[in-house]
Amino acid sequence: MRSILIIGAGRSASSLIRYLLSKSETENLHLIVADLSLALAERKTQNHPNATPIALNIFETEERKAAIEKASIVISMLPAHLHIEIAKDCLAYKKHLVTASYISNEMQALDEEAKKNNLIFMNEIGLDPGIDHMSAMKVIDEIREKGGNMLLFESFCGGLVAPESDTNLWNYKFTWAPRNVVLAGQGGAAKFVQEGTYKYIPYGTLFRRTEFLEVEGYGKFEAYSNRDSLKYRSIYGLDNILTLYRGTIRRVGYSKAWNMFVQLGMTDDSYIMEDSENMSYRQFVNSFLPYHPTDSVEIKTRLILKIDQDDIMWDKLLELDLFNPNKKVNLPNATPAQILEKILTDSWTLEPDDKDMIVMYHKFGYELAGKKAQIDSKMVCIGDDQTYTAMAKTVGLPVAMATLLILNGKIKTPGVQLPINKEVYLPILKELEEYGVIFNEQKVPYFGYNPDLF
Are residues 231 and 374 in the same domain? Predict the structure, then answer.
């Protein structure tokens, strides 16, 4: 049997493992599911005859190399910074590799050697990055094949809570890594190009510069800018495009509310707060407010944020129990961002019956035969439950499908790459439709811009 080594059995691996096990008989597959926690690997494989769960510490070099040497192909579902040692072992033992993570500089440096050995190192084949690349390149290539010239490309994606599970004033719950949510937008100004002009949004105003989106059947959303919208300009072949913008989707009102934390300084991860372990939630809030001999923490908060007590923004803060003097942070040597994450986790953790939702939205503006036109492409995916979430489905299924296509010789191009070639995106997008990941494309009037206003 052909052996697939899956390293990492976390949340994103559930749909990946289920898919490959469902194909294991017809495709002659045996899965080795490796994780630091043997119990977790056992839960994900569910005593399937074509799967073997193993405990694997990737920092034990010989143990890691032995597992990779025995595999026909390797899937790494580890955090991005841990892929590189796996990749080097894959080169040494001549194994193909698949990951859902962004291509790091270290990974890119292996490109030449991977090509020499006719090895495929497929990266960015999850949701975002992944499905966003594939669904975008499909439409962009179709426009080009008709002789069209791309003018505008805007792309948005968000992990949200499904409508039936949307039960708080923020219209949001953690469906993925909470830390990434708290730190979103930090590390430099957001940059993009609009009507040929470079635009920059510093972190301090990021959440007050939003774009609104409408998705039929699901209502209105907003999006704030990703940090670097320009990194894929050359990869997509859009060097001369007038407008290129990528953003993160949330429900309307989220960004304005989140901006309160930004303005107070609660999202800062650069310093440790003294005696954080014994701090109450109320003391945490108060530490960012000026001293006043008579005003309460609540009054000082409203004054500094300029919100009235009948404003929905105030209700959103109250809902988080931020001013509770009895709740303790219980985190030693914590940064403000870590404390905020802890507070939000109290309120934003999914309930056992909750479902998550992925929303993706692309806009393609182009000129064809002297006329300007636009295609909007939208996808909504709702999870089954807390194991087979929409996030796990949209991250794991493309990884699994790419793995099988590589094993079967359908993807042939060697080297370190992302899924922008037809041999990758056409079969995967087609098969994803069978699993409810469907893009609805519609022609709409070209949105356009008035260059005089820019």
Answer: yes
